[in-house]
Write a structure and sequence with these properties.
Blueprint lengths: L1 E5 L4 H12 L3 E6 L7 H5 L8 E3 L5 H11 L1 E6 L6 H6 L1 H22 L4 E6 L20 H21 L3 E6 L2 E2 L11 H11 L2 E4 L6 E2 L2 E2 H13 L7 E4 L5 E2 H11 L4 E4 L21 H7 L7 H14 L7
Helix pairs in contact: 1-8, 5-6, 7-9, 9-11
């Protein structure tokens, strides 16, 4: 079975390609950029078996040709503009990629009678809600990125109702791991990983109370594999995460345990002075629906995920120089 994976040069796309290949299926990656160097680490011995095509999710005719050429049977749609700063600089670009790109995947599925589309949605669908565990139905999207995910999910409902196009949205929370765009200013987990690997004392003066339901890339990919393979799914939306809030202070403590020579201290607060991080708190995602209907069980707790990530960064220090 040939599966088209958009965003196939990114963290989630690459881990998903590996999961599908290990499952005996035939993934093909699509991205605007060539296959990156870190793909070899993620794909491992499956790299030679997974084609990579350069293309644009906005170019419907080329996408249609690709579907015919490779006899694609289904789509995992992971391509997206994910940085809110991109929307603030060029809102039209972000809106087009994230909404028209999704519409193109749905239309490809309709025109070519594909099995289904699995869409990488986001925990941002729930807005800055730091209350109880967030369940499907608690949607309150805020900001450009979240709203484009919301629009995409609404388009999925329309294609499902009007044309019978099968689709599932997975709301994935705070993905990290090899292949994550390196930006220590906006990703405190990366900043702590970097300083842990330097083997020198480091103090992050604020942010210890900032919490996220961190999800390792391989677990996000597991959710996508299970959702694609599920016969007669009971729902159209599922949360995918560890299902547990983890503070930045806990990340620092874990790195002190895991990384030899790490000496990290994290101050209190929740990045109130940081434009990108302040006001973006939200609760953990309730993964009961995914666990009970899809059989999803995360394989990476915090220690295992950070161990794998720091092993990768140690082996590829050039990543941290970007």
């Amino acid at each position: 079975m040939t599966i088209l994976i958009t965003g196939g040069a990114g963290l989630v796309g690459l881990y998903t390609a590996r999961r599908f290949a290990e499952d005996g299926q035939n993934p093909i990656c699509l991205d605007r950029v060539p296959r990156p160097a870190h793909a070899a680490y993620i794909l491992g011995d499956k790299a030679k078996d997974i084609p990579h095509e350069q293309g644009d999710v906005l170019d419907f005719e080329s996408l249609s040709d690709l579907v015919r050429e490779h006899k694609v049977e289904g789509i995992i749609h992971a391509a997206a503009v994910v940085n809110e700063y991109v929307f603030l600089d060029d809102p039209l670009l972000g809106i087009r990629v994230n909404t028209i790109g999704t519409a193109n995947m749905l239309e490809l599925t309709r025109q070519h009678d594909l099995r289904r589309v699995i869409f990488c949605s986001s925990g941002t669908m729930y807005g800055p809600n730091a209350g109880q565990p967030l369940v499907e139905g608690d949607e309150d999207p805020k900001g450009f990125y979240a709203e484009t995910k919301n629009i995409s999910e609404r388009l999925m409902h329309q294609y499902r109702d009007k044309f019978g196009v099968q689709s599932i949205a997975l709301r994935i929370s705070a993905v990290y791991g090899p292949g994550k765009v390196w930006n220590m200013d906006n990703y405190p987990l990366q900043r702590l990983c970097y300083h842990a690997l330097q083997g020198e004392p480091y103090e992050m003066t604020e942010g210890g109370d900032y919490k996220r339901d961190f999800t390792y890339g391989a677990d996000a990919a597991l959710g996508l594999l299970l959702a694609y393979g599920k016969e007669d799914p009971a729902y159209n939306e599922y949360n995918i995460s560890v299902g547990k809030l983890i503070s930045v202070a806990e990340v620092g403590d874990a790195l002190n345990r895991i990384v030899p020579g790490a000496d990290l201290t994290v101050g209190s607060g929740a990045f109130e002075s940081h434009v990108a991080l302040s006001g973006s708190l939200r609760g953990e995602l309730d993964i009961t629906r995914a666990r009970e209907d899809l059989g999803f069980k995360p394989e990476y707790d915090l220690d295992k995920g950070l161990s794998a990530y720091t092993d990768y960064l140690r082996a590829h220090p050039e990543i941290m120089d970007k």
